[in-house]
Amino acid sequence: MVTGGASGIGAATVELLRSRGARVASLDLSNTGDVDGDIPCDVGDATSISPATARAVEFLGGVDILVNNAGIGAVGDVSANDEDEWITVMRVNVLSIALVTRALLGELRRSPHAAIVNTCSVVANVGVPQRALYSASKGAVQALTLAMAADHVKEGIRVNGVTPGTADTPWVERLLDAAPDAREAAAALRGRQPMGRLVTPAEVAAAIAYLASPAAGSTTGTMLAVDGGMSGIRVGS
To answer: What residues act catalytically?
Structure first.
Protein backbone atom coordinates (compact mmCIF):
# COMPACT_ATOMS: atom_id res chain seq x y z
CA MET A 1 0.00 0.00 0.00
CA VAL A 2 1.33 3.41 -1.02
CA THR A 3 0.02 6.70 0.36
CA GLY A 4 0.21 9.71 -1.91
CA GLY A 5 0.25 7.27 -4.79
CA ALA A 6 -1.39 9.41 -7.47
CA SER A 7 1.51 11.68 -8.44
CA GLY A 8 5.24 12.26 -8.19
CA ILE A 9 7.28 9.78 -6.17
CA GLY A 10 4.16 7.91 -5.05
CA ALA A 11 2.91 7.34 -8.60
CA ALA A 12 6.38 6.21 -9.72
CA THR A 13 6.49 3.76 -6.80
CA VAL A 14 3.05 2.35 -7.58
CA GLU A 15 4.01 1.92 -11.23
CA LEU A 16 7.31 0.22 -10.42
CA LEU A 17 5.86 -2.18 -7.87
CA ARG A 18 3.01 -3.13 -10.19
CA SER A 19 5.46 -3.68 -13.04
CA ARG A 20 7.29 -6.17 -10.83
CA GLY A 21 4.13 -8.14 -10.22
CA ALA A 22 2.99 -6.68 -6.91
CA ARG A 23 -0.65 -6.06 -6.15
CA VAL A 24 -0.70 -2.42 -5.01
CA ALA A 25 -3.29 -0.21 -3.35
CA SER A 26 -2.77 3.51 -3.82
CA LEU A 27 -4.26 5.91 -1.28
CA ASP A 28 -4.50 9.51 -2.40
CA LEU A 29 -6.75 12.51 -1.94
CA SER A 30 -7.11 12.85 -5.72
CA ASN A 31 -8.05 9.22 -6.39
CA THR A 32 -11.61 8.83 -7.66
CA GLY A 33 -11.99 5.14 -6.86
CA ASP A 34 -12.75 4.32 -10.48
CA VAL A 35 -9.63 2.16 -10.84
CA ASP A 36 -9.24 -1.02 -8.78
CA GLY A 37 -6.77 -0.39 -5.99
CA ASP A 38 -6.82 3.41 -6.34
CA ILE A 39 -8.59 4.44 -3.15
CA PRO A 40 -9.60 7.98 -2.19
CA CYS A 41 -8.10 9.00 1.14
CA ASP A 42 -7.14 12.21 2.90
CA VAL A 43 -4.30 11.09 5.16
CA GLY A 44 -4.53 14.42 6.92
CA ASP A 45 -7.99 13.46 8.16
CA ALA A 46 -8.05 10.65 10.72
CA THR A 47 -11.66 9.80 9.88
CA SER A 48 -10.66 9.11 6.26
CA ILE A 49 -7.84 6.71 7.11
CA SER A 50 -9.79 3.89 8.75
CA PRO A 51 -12.23 3.15 5.89
CA ALA A 52 -9.53 3.65 3.26
CA THR A 53 -7.07 1.25 4.87
CA ALA A 54 -9.85 -1.28 5.46
CA ARG A 55 -10.71 -1.09 1.77
CA ALA A 56 -7.03 -1.52 0.88
CA VAL A 57 -6.73 -4.62 3.06
CA GLU A 58 -9.84 -6.08 1.44
CA PHE A 59 -8.47 -5.37 -2.04
CA LEU A 60 -5.01 -6.74 -1.26
CA GLY A 61 -6.04 -9.64 0.97
CA GLY A 62 -3.44 -8.50 3.50
CA VAL A 63 -0.49 -6.10 3.57
CA ASP A 64 3.19 -6.97 3.26
CA ILE A 65 4.55 -3.53 2.34
CA LEU A 66 3.51 -0.08 3.50
CA VAL A 67 4.99 2.98 1.83
CA ASN A 68 4.18 6.14 3.80
CA ASN A 69 4.84 8.63 1.04
CA ALA A 70 2.07 11.24 1.24
CA GLY A 71 3.30 14.71 2.08
CA ILE A 72 2.92 18.41 1.39
CA GLY A 73 5.48 21.19 1.11
CA ALA A 74 5.88 24.54 2.81
CA VAL A 75 8.02 27.58 2.01
CA GLY A 76 9.44 30.24 4.29
CA ASP A 77 11.59 30.92 7.33
CA VAL A 78 10.39 30.25 10.86
CA SER A 79 8.23 33.39 10.86
CA ALA A 80 6.55 32.80 7.51
CA ASN A 81 3.95 30.10 8.16
CA ASP A 82 0.94 30.65 10.38
CA GLU A 83 -0.20 28.26 13.08
CA ASP A 84 -2.81 26.61 10.87
CA GLU A 85 -0.21 25.77 8.22
CA TRP A 86 2.14 24.34 10.85
CA ILE A 87 -0.65 22.10 12.11
CA THR A 88 -1.67 21.01 8.59
CA VAL A 89 1.86 20.18 7.43
CA MET A 90 2.74 18.28 10.59
CA ARG A 91 -0.56 16.39 10.42
CA VAL A 92 -0.08 15.31 6.79
CA ASN A 93 3.68 14.72 6.83
CA VAL A 94 4.12 13.19 10.29
CA LEU A 95 0.91 12.25 12.06
CA SER A 96 -0.43 10.43 9.00
CA ILE A 97 2.51 8.01 9.15
CA ALA A 98 1.59 7.09 12.71
CA LEU A 99 -2.13 6.78 11.98
CA VAL A 100 -1.80 4.77 8.74
CA THR A 101 0.83 2.47 10.24
CA ARG A 102 -1.27 1.93 13.34
CA ALA A 103 -4.26 1.00 11.19
CA LEU A 104 -2.21 -1.64 9.33
CA LEU A 105 0.02 -2.92 12.12
CA GLY A 106 -2.04 -6.06 12.65
CA GLU A 107 -1.78 -6.97 8.96
CA LEU A 108 1.95 -6.30 8.90
CA ARG A 109 2.48 -8.46 11.98
CA ARG A 110 0.85 -11.35 10.14
CA SER A 111 3.11 -10.96 7.10
CA PRO A 112 6.29 -13.03 6.81
CA HIS A 113 7.92 -10.24 4.78
CA ALA A 114 6.67 -7.05 6.42
CA ALA A 115 8.36 -3.82 5.43
CA ILE A 116 7.58 -0.15 5.96
CA VAL A 117 9.28 2.61 3.96
CA ASN A 118 8.76 6.26 4.88
CA THR A 119 9.52 9.09 2.48
CA CYS A 120 11.65 11.65 4.26
CA SER A 121 13.86 14.38 2.71
CA VAL A 122 17.44 15.60 2.61
CA VAL A 123 16.27 18.63 4.60
CA ALA A 124 16.10 16.39 7.67
CA ASN A 125 19.91 16.50 7.64
CA VAL A 126 20.86 19.61 5.66
CA GLY A 127 19.76 23.16 6.42
CA VAL A 128 18.12 24.65 3.33
CA PRO A 129 16.92 28.27 3.17
CA GLN A 130 13.18 28.98 3.31
CA ARG A 131 12.17 25.48 4.42
CA ALA A 132 11.76 25.84 8.20
CA LEU A 133 8.36 24.17 8.54
CA TYR A 134 9.01 21.54 5.89
CA SER A 135 12.39 20.71 7.46
CA ALA A 136 10.82 20.38 10.90
CA SER A 137 8.27 17.92 9.55
CA LYS A 138 10.84 15.80 7.74
CA GLY A 139 13.19 15.81 10.72
CA ALA A 140 10.28 14.35 12.67
CA VAL A 141 9.73 11.74 9.94
CA GLN A 142 13.35 10.63 10.24
CA ALA A 143 13.16 10.36 14.03
CA LEU A 144 9.85 8.52 13.81
CA THR A 145 11.26 6.07 11.26
CA LEU A 146 14.16 5.11 13.52
CA ALA A 147 11.88 4.78 16.56
CA MET A 148 9.47 2.57 14.62
CA ALA A 149 12.37 0.39 13.45
CA ALA A 150 13.45 -0.13 17.06
CA ASP A 151 9.92 -0.85 18.26
CA HIS A 152 9.07 -3.47 15.67
CA VAL A 153 12.33 -5.20 14.75
CA LYS A 154 11.60 -8.12 17.10
CA GLU A 155 8.23 -8.58 15.36
CA GLY A 156 9.95 -9.03 12.00
CA ILE A 157 8.78 -5.69 10.62
CA ARG A 158 11.56 -3.78 8.89
CA VAL A 159 11.25 0.03 8.88
CA ASN A 160 13.41 2.25 6.70
CA GLY A 161 13.24 5.61 4.98
CA VAL A 162 14.38 7.35 1.83
CA THR A 163 15.75 10.89 1.89
CA PRO A 164 15.39 12.40 -1.58
CA GLY A 165 17.02 15.62 -2.63
CA THR A 166 15.03 18.11 -4.64
CA ALA A 167 12.97 15.93 -6.96
CA ASP A 168 11.18 16.71 -10.20
CA THR A 169 7.69 16.49 -8.72
CA PRO A 170 4.46 18.47 -9.13
CA TRP A 171 5.17 20.38 -5.90
CA VAL A 172 8.53 21.58 -7.24
CA GLU A 173 6.84 22.51 -10.52
CA ARG A 174 4.34 24.65 -8.60
CA LEU A 175 7.18 26.20 -6.62
CA LEU A 176 8.93 27.19 -9.83
CA ASP A 177 5.72 28.51 -11.37
CA ALA A 178 5.35 30.85 -8.38
CA ALA A 179 8.94 32.12 -8.56
CA PRO A 180 9.63 35.61 -9.98
CA ASP A 181 12.10 34.06 -12.42
CA ALA A 182 11.33 30.36 -12.98
CA ARG A 183 14.47 29.74 -15.02
CA GLU A 184 16.73 31.24 -12.36
CA ALA A 185 14.92 29.35 -9.59
CA ALA A 186 15.26 26.06 -11.47
CA ALA A 187 18.97 26.66 -12.00
CA ALA A 188 19.39 27.33 -8.26
CA LEU A 189 17.63 24.09 -7.34
CA ARG A 190 19.82 22.11 -9.73
CA GLY A 191 22.96 23.91 -8.63
CA ARG A 192 22.68 23.04 -4.95
CA GLN A 193 22.84 19.31 -5.77
CA PRO A 194 26.38 18.21 -6.67
CA MET A 195 25.17 16.12 -9.63
CA GLY A 196 23.73 19.30 -11.11
CA ARG A 197 20.21 18.04 -11.75
CA LEU A 198 16.98 17.24 -9.98
CA VAL A 199 16.33 13.75 -8.66
CA THR A 200 13.76 11.82 -10.70
CA PRO A 201 10.71 10.20 -9.07
CA ALA A 202 11.73 6.91 -10.70
CA GLU A 203 15.10 6.99 -8.91
CA VAL A 204 13.41 7.43 -5.53
CA ALA A 205 10.88 4.72 -6.39
CA ALA A 206 13.72 2.31 -7.14
CA ALA A 207 15.20 2.97 -3.69
CA ILE A 208 11.81 2.44 -2.05
CA ALA A 209 11.29 -0.81 -3.93
CA TYR A 210 14.71 -2.06 -2.85
CA LEU A 211 14.11 -1.28 0.83
CA ALA A 212 10.71 -2.97 0.63
CA SER A 213 12.04 -6.10 -1.06
CA PRO A 214 13.46 -9.32 0.42
CA ALA A 215 16.81 -8.24 -1.10
CA ALA A 216 17.00 -5.77 1.81
CA GLY A 217 16.08 -8.41 4.37
CA SER A 218 18.84 -7.39 6.78
CA THR A 219 18.22 -3.66 6.44
CA THR A 220 16.19 -1.80 9.05
CA GLY A 221 16.55 1.58 10.72
CA THR A 222 18.29 2.95 7.63
CA MET A 223 17.75 6.24 5.83
CA LEU A 224 18.76 5.80 2.19
CA ALA A 225 19.81 9.07 0.52
CA VAL A 226 18.78 9.68 -3.08
CA ASP A 227 19.88 13.29 -3.19
CA GLY A 228 22.44 13.78 -5.94
CA GLY A 229 25.19 13.94 -3.33
CA MET A 230 23.67 16.89 -1.48
CA SER A 231 24.04 15.44 2.01
CA GLY A 232 27.41 13.77 1.60
CA ILE A 233 29.78 15.64 -0.71
CA ARG A 234 30.98 19.14 -1.55
CA VAL A 235 32.33 20.07 -4.98
CA GLY A 236 34.05 23.14 -6.32
CA SER A 237 36.87 25.25 -5.00
So the answer is: 134
